[in-house]
C-alpha cells in the first residue's frame, strides 16, 4: 500500500515531462532542416518561413480552447490527444508530396503541441505539494526544452541517413512510443485510472494503492486550496449550464492575479523566443559579421544559461513566494536594458556586451514559468486549465508579433534578405521589442498592486 505514494507521482511526472519534450522535438523539428525542407518540397525561403509562423499561430490560437477542454476532460486525455495529433502530423509530413499538404501537417503538429504543455502544468498540482511545485515546474520546463537539442543534431543526422520520409516516420514512431507509455501510466490524479484501465474496465493494483494517497492529499489540498469560490462571487457560477465562453472569460479576467500572471508571461520570454526561433542567427551572422560556427557556439551559451536559471529560480520562487513576481520583473528589466544597449550602440557592439546579452536573454524562459505559479495561486481549481491556457497565450502572442514586426521593419529598410542585412537595419528592427517590454513591465507593476489590494480585501495570503 505504502510503496505507491513516493514512486507513482514521479513516474507520472516523468512520462508527462517526456510528452512535453517530444512536443518540443516536434515543434522545432524543422529548425535544423530548413535546406532539406526547401529541397524536398522545392520551396523558397519565404514559404519556408511560413512554417514556424503558422505553427505559432495555431499554438497560440488554441491555448484557450485547449484550456477549456482541459477543465472538461482532464490532463491525461489532453496529453494523449496532443500526442496523437503530433504523430498524425509528422506521419503526414513524411509522406505528403506537396507543400500545401505539408502546411496542413504542420497545423496538426502545432495543434498537438498546443495540447501538451498546459495539460502537463495542470496535472502537476494533483501530484506534488505546493512547496515542490515551483521546482518541479522549472525542471519540467528544462526537460521539455532539452527536446530542442534533440531536434537539432540527432534529427538532422536521422534525416541525413534515413532520408526525409524515414526521418519523419522515425519521429512519429518516437511519439507513438511515448503515447503508449502515456496510455499505461498517465493518471489525472492519485486514485484515478489510466486510459488502459478505462478501456479494459479493470483497475490495476497501483491505482487501487494510490487511493489511500489520494484520500490523504484531498484532506491536505482542501486546507491549501487556490481562491475559494465563495471568495470570488463573480465566478461562483462556473458550473451553470449555458454560461457563455466570453462571460466565463470575463469573470476569470476580473481576478487581478490572473491578469498579473498573463503579463508576467507576456513580458519575459518573447525576446528569447524571437532570437532562438528565427532572428538570432541572421543577427549574429548578417548583423555582427560572425561566421556561422561562432554564431552556433554563442547560441549554445543560451542553453547553459537557461538551464542554470531553471534550477536556481524554482527553489528561489518557492522560498520567497512573495517576491517571485519581482524576480521575473528584474529579469525582464535586465533583458530590456542589455538589449537596448545593443540596439543604441553607435558602432558594432563589443563582444563582451554581446556575451552578456546571450547570457541574460535566455533567463526570460525560466522566468516566464513564474507566471504559471502566479496563475495557480489565483485561479479557482475548476478554471485551472482555462487560466493556464490564457496565461500561456501571453508570451507566445508577443513572440509572434515581434517575429513578424522584425521581418517587416527589415523589409521596409530594404534589408529583408541575407545579402542586404546590415547591423544598423537589425538595430532598428530589434527596437520593435521596446514597446512590448514597456507595456509588459507597466502592466506587471499595475496588476501586482491590484492583486495585493485584492488579497488584503479578501484576507488572503500567498501559498
Ligand atoms: N526552461 C524554460 C521554460 C520556458 C517555458 C516557456 N516560457 C513556456 O511557457 N512554454 C510553453 C510551451 O509550450 O513550451
Short structural summary:
This protein is mainly α and 463 residues long.
In N-to-C order, the SSE pattern is: HHHHHHHHHHHHHHHHHHH
Give the DSSP E fraction (strand runs of 2 or more residues). Answer: under 5%
Uncertain stretches: 219-224, 228-238
Q: Judging by the overall fold, what is the CATH architecture of the largest domain?
A: Up-down Bundle
Kindly report the name of the CATH homologous superfamily of the largest domain.
Answer: MFS general substrate transporter like domains
- Secondary structure class reads mainly alpha
Which whole number gives the mean pLDDT?
Answer: 88
How do the strands and helices of this protein lay out in sequence?
Elements: H1 4-27, H2 34-41, H3 45-73, H4 75-95, H5 99-127, H6 133-185, H7 195-200, H8 205-223, H9 245-253, H10 256-267, H11 270-287, H12 292-319, H13 324-344, H14 351-360, H15 364-368, H16 370-378, H17 384-412, H18 423-430, H19 433-457
Helix pairs in contact: 1-4, 1-5, 1-6, 3-4, 3-5, 3-17, 4-5, 4-6, 5-17, 6-12, 10-16, 10-17, 10-19, 11-12, 11-17, 12-14, 13-14, 13-18, 13-19, 16-17, 17-18
Bound molecules: ligand LYPLPQDE.
Amino acid at each position: 500500500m505504502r510503496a505507491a505514494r513516493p514512486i507513482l507521482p514521479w513516474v507520472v511526472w516523468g512520462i508527462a515531462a517526456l510528452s512535453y519534450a517530444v512536443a518540443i522535438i516536434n515543434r522545432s523539428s524543422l529548425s535544423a532542416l530548413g535546406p532539406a525542407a526547401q529541397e524536398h518540397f522545392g520551396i523558397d525561403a519565404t514559404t519556408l518561413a511560413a512554417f514556424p509562423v503558422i505553427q505559432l499561430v495555431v499554438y497560440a490560437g488554441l491555448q484557450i480552447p485547449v484550456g477549456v477542454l482541459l477543465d472538461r476532460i482532464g490532463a491525461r486525455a489532453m496529453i494523449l490527444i496532443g500526442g496523437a495529433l503530433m504523430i498524425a502530423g509528422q506521419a503526414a509530413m513524411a509522406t505528403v508530396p506537396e507543400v500545401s499538404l505539408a502546411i496542413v501537417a504542420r497545423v496538426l503538429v502545432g495543434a498537438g503541441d498546443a495540447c501538451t504543455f498546459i495539460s502537463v502544468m495542470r496535472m502537476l498540482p494533483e501530484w506534488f505539494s505546493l512547496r515542490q511545485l515551483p521546482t518541479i515546474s522549472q525542471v519540467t520546463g528544462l526537460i521539455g526544452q532539452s527536446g530542442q537539442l534533440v531536434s537539432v543534431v540527432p534529427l538532422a543526422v536521422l534525416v541525413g541517413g534515413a532520408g526525409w520520409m524515414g526521418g519523419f516516420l522515425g519521429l512519429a514512431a518516437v511519439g507513438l512510443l511515448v503515447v503508449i507509455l502515456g496510455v499505461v501510466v498517465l493518471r489525472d490524479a492519485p486514485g484515478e485510472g489510466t486510459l488502459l484501465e478505462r478501456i479494459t474496465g479493470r483497475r490495476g493494483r497501483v491505482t487501487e494503492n494510490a487511493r489511500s494517497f489520494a484520500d490523504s492529499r484531498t484532506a491536505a489540498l482542501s486546507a491549501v486550496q487556490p481562491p475559494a469560490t465563495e471568495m470570488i462571487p463573480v465566478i461562483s457560477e462556473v458550473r451553470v449550464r449555458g454560461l457563455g465562453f466570453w462571460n466565463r472569460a470575463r469573470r476569470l479576467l476580473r481576478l487581478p492575479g490572473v491578469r498579473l500572471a498573463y503579463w508576467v508571461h507576456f513580458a519575459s520570454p518573447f525576446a528569447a523566443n524571437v532570437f532562438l526561433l528565427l532572428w538570432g542567427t541572421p543577427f549574429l551572422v548578417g548583423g555582427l559579421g560572425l561566421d556561422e560556427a561562432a554564431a552556433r557556439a554563442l547560441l549554445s551559451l543560451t542553453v547553459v544559461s537557461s538551464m542554470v536559471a531553471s534550477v536556481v529560480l524554482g527553489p528561489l520562487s518557492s522560498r520567497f513566494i512573495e517576491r517571485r513576481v519581482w524576480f521575473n520583473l528584474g529579469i525582464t528589466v535586465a533583458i530590456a536594458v542589455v538589449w537596448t544597449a545593443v540596439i543604441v550602440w553607435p558602432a558594432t557592439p563589443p563582444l563582451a556586451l554581446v556575451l552578456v546579452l546571450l547570457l541574460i536573454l535566455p533567463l526570460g524562459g525560466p522566468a516566464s514559468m513564474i507566471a504559471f505559479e502566479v496563475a495557480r495561486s489565483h485561479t479557482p481549481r475548476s478554471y485551472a486549465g482555462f487560466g493556464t491556457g490564457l496565461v500561456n497565450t501571453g508570451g507566445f502572442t508577443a513572440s509572434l508579433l515581434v517575429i513578424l514586426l522584425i521581418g517587416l521593419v527589415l523589409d521596409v529598410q530594404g534589408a529583408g534578405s541575407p545579402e542586404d542585412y546590415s547591423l544598423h537595419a537589425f538595430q532598428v528592427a530589434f527596437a520593435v521589442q521596446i514597446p512590448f517590454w514597456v507595456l509588459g513591465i507597466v502592466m506587471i507593476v499595475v496588476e501586482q498592486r491590484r492583486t495585493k489590494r485584492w488579497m488584503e480585501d479578501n484576507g488572503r495570503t500567498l501559498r
